[in-house]
Amino acid sequence: MAAEQKPLPFGYTFMAGAIAGVSEILVMYPLDVVKTRVQLQTGKGPASETYNGMLDCFQKIVRNEGFSRLYRGISAPILMEAPKRATKFAANDKWGKFYRDAFGQVKMNQSLSVLTGASAGATEAFVVVPFELVKIRLQDKASAGKYSGALDVVAKTIRNEGILAMYNGLESTLWRHILWNAGYFGCIFQVREWIPKADTKKGQMINDVVAGSVGGTVGTIVNTPLDVVKSRIQNTIKVRGVVPKYNWAFPAVLTVAKEEGFAALYKGFLPKVLRLGPGGGILLVVYTGVMDFFRKMKDDQEKAKLV
Ligand SMILES: *[C@@H]1O[C@H](CO)[C@@H](O)[C@H](O)[C@H]1NC(C)=O
């Protein structure tokens, strides 16, 4: 991640990550709604409400519930994407420096970029859990009439289940983000090593789209089972004295595999990978572009000072 380029202070990496995140969400959000619907579906209902895959789900939502439903629940992710992506990139930058110093390495290498990504993912998870919980509960069809909006989910969750319930699903979220970011940043490093360096701006953009998309795809392949169980853990209303069916991440993965088959662990995979593959590309391009812009801006400021 621009590790060998001139470093910029924390505020800049944070801002660049935020801009990248908002750009990505505006393009990709409807796929996320579809993904959650498919993941939460456990049995068969009436034919008009049963989704046979992503496209079918997409069409049925638009036909039965209206186009705007594809953007239902976006206020939480918009508010979340900025801090979340900002945390992802700023943490990756910071952990990268930390590990290079700790191991006395001047340059990034493959194993360090995986370790850096994993650490950035763990950092990110702490920021995203409450936002994710609100989003999952708004996206679930069963709860369409239950909550009037994001703040209502927060109020009802705290009132009925206690404030700690907002961190329901922390453990599975940690795993989901550790795996995704390790895959994402690890692949970006590797793909950038493999493909020829570009010497034009456009060439560099294409390289970033490719590296980011491969990273997003691989991250998604490794983390989807954890995402499925995370959706279910967070969608479960906590009842005092009852051990929830889905509780810890890896046992829940086994439960789903045993009861519904291995394929169930990849429920919602297609919309997710279509979102996070290209989404990973959009993120990296916007992030790199904004960082270049900031670098140039600072250079110009410094030059102006010298004159
Ligand atoms: C990367 O650097 C670390 C720390 O110096 C080292 O332990 C590791 O083996 C290196 N990995 C690769 C793939 O070169």
Provide structural commentary.
With 307 residues, this protein is mainly α. The chain has a single domain, classed as Mitochondrial carrier domain (Mitochondrial carrier fold, Alpha/alpha barrel). 73% of the residues lie in helices and 0% in strands. The protein has nine helices and no strands. The longest helix has 38 residues, at 269-306. The two termini are 32 Å apart. 2-acetamido-2-deoxy-beta-D-glucopyranose binds next to α4.
List keywords for this structure.
307 residues; mainly alpha; Mitochondrial carrier fold; 73% helix; binds 2-acetamido-2-deoxy-beta-D-glucopyranose
Q: Total domains, how many?
A: 1
CATH topology: Mitochondrial carrier fold
Task: Estimate the mean pLDDT confidence.
Answer: 89
The percentage of residues in β strands lies in under 5%
Q: Helix share of residues?
A: over 70%
- Unreliable runs: none
Bound molecules: 2-acetamido-2-deoxy-beta-D-glucopyranose
CATH superfamily grouping? Mitochondrial carrier domain
Shape summary: globular
Total beta strand runs? 0
Transmembrane segments: 12-31
Keywords: Membrane, Mitochondrion, Mitochondrion inner membrane, Repeat, Transmembrane, Transmembrane helix, Transport
Protein name: Mitochondrial carrier domain-containing protein
Main location: mitochondrion
